[in-house]
Specification:
The protein is mainly α. The protein has a domain at 112-379: Orthogonal Bundle (ABC transporter involved in vitamin B12 uptake, BtuC), CATH 1.10.3470.10. Helices cover 74% and strands 0% of the residues. It is built from 16 helices and no strands. Helix 5 runs antiparallel to helix 13. It is globular.
Length: 386
């Protein structure tokens, strides 16, 4: 047993300064050297697991990228892809057909799909942390309904707009998603004075349901050809992806991930509750606004690039959290890699399963994501969500 004098020793007594400093950088405050060593062993084990998961996800993402770029009516081997991208002389004979297919059709499509999937997954991770709800996804605040309304209006009016490489449909979808999230935030603030988590969710459900009704009404009144175009867009797809779309979407993903990683410690604290996070020094209201803004922009870009595609932002954060833990410095990049790989593979299945007919990507993610999500729930039955 420890005696009274030992209990009165100051925190960190007997532990080397470097050991204590490392433990406290990880958010732990051990009392004695033995406790510091135990904490650091756990931290280092967690770090090794996180790095291993990130390495595997990166390899899967690269494999999906090569498969998406190489598989099709005209097969292109990974070696030939590398030669074309590097401009090697050995690929000179293939600079005709293979290069055109790769550089003008498949590669922009695969990269846009990857950016879309990564954006949805990162937005899902942010919203799940903000709302402390494992069922939160990027569309929880009605962004999908707002984007669908904007896209359907553009299709119904046959608008001919072009800005930064985006046409009328993605432009109005982007504006509709952002406008809806802003409206939900203002309504939650107006009704409660302070936009609490519950008020945001309820306002999101109400606004989303209303906008979904408007979308259904407009589609019902459309002519057959435009109705089919609107329905197909709402199911999601990347058949018209271009380099300009990639140039528009990628900066939002990079910026959003940078902000999310910067807020990682605050997001970890929010998982403990807003009051606890505030006691830990987190500016809760400022953090909530910033997370909402980043998540809204990521969701808007994703919907504008690929339409309404479900389950990616819900399933991927769950899966990577199970594999590596809830630390957001790991969770954000892992979600991005997992979302990118999953979306690329879903797009590959969508255009290959019934070729030459192409399925909507949203159908593929729903048919595969729903059973997989049920499996995740079963696997986590004995574990507490974090």
């Amino acid at each position: 047993m420890r005696d009274y004098a030992e209990d009165r020793r100051p925190p960190g007594w007997g532990a080397p300064a470097s050991l204590l400093a490392e433990a406290r950088r990880e958010g732990a405050y051990p009392v004695h050297a033995r406790e510091a060593a135990v904490v650091l062993r756990a931290v280092r084990a967690r770090s090794r697991r996180e790095h291993a998961v990130l390495a595997v996800l990166a390899a899967v993402c690269v494999g999906a990228l090569l498969a998406g770029a190489g598989v099709g009516a005209v097969g292109i081997s990974p070696a030939r892809i590398g030669q074309i991208l590097l401009g090697l002389p050995a690929a000179a004979a293939a600079r005709g057909t293979d290069a055109v297919i790769l550089l003008q059709i498949r590669l922009p499509r695969v990269l846009v799909a990857g950016v879309t999937g990564a954006s949805l997954a990162v937005a899902g991770a942010l919203f799940q942390a903000l709302f402390r709800n494992p069922l939160a996804d990027p569309y929880i605040l009605g962004a999908s309904s707002g984007a669908s309304l904007g896209a359907v209006v553009a299709i119904a009016l046959a608008l001919d707009l072009h800005l930064f490489g985006w046409g009328a449909v993605p432009l109005l979808a982007f504006a509709g998603a952002l406008g809806t999230v802003w409206l939900v935030y203002r309504l939650a603030r107006a009704c409660t004075g302070r936009p609490s988590v519950l008020a945001l969710i309820l306002a999101g459900v109400a606004v989303g349901s209303f906008l979904s009704g408007l979308v259904s009404l407009i589609i019902y009144l459309l002519q057959d050809d435009r109705m089919h175009q609107a329905v197909f867009w709402m199911m999601g797809g990347f058949s018209g992806a271009t380099w300009d779309q990639l140039a528009m979407a990628a900066p939002y993903l990079v910026g959003g991930m940078a902000v999310a990683i910067w807020l990682a410690r605050d997001l970890d604290s929010l998982l403990l509750g807003e009051e606890t996070a505030q006691h830990l020094g987190v500016r809760v209201e400022w953090t909530r606004r910033l997370v909402l803004s980043v998540g809204a922009f990521l969701t808007a870009v994703a919907v504008a690039s690929g339409g309404v595609i479900g389950f990616v932002g819900l399933v991927v954060p769950h899966a990577v959290r199970m594999l590596g833990g809830p630390n957001h410095r790991y969770l954000v990049p892992a979600s991005a890699l997992g979302g990118a790989g999953l979306m690329i593979l879903a797009d590959l299945v969508a255009r290959s399963l019934l070729a030459p007919m192409e399925l909507p990507v949203g159908v593929v993610t729903a048919l595969t994501g729903a059973p997989f999500f049920l499996y995740l729930l079963q696997a986590r039955r004995s574990h507490r969500w974090m």
